[in-house]
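Appendix B. Chain record.
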Amino acid sequence: MNDDDIRRARLRELAATTTAAMEDIYWLLSTKDPEYAGICEGAIAARQLHERLCKEGKEPEGTG
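Structure tokens predicted for this chain:
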């Protein structure tokens, strides 16, 4: 396995973990429990910022 294969494997694992975490966040939002509201809003804002930076070609180093 070369470095590119290792990186691809890590990114696939990260994508799966990120997807699972986002599903958990959306579930928490659906509970409408105020205890989780700030956590969920912050996580969604961070994800939106990351997506925007990627679209602008400013993806943080080491994330893809």
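Further analysis of this model is presented in Appendix C.
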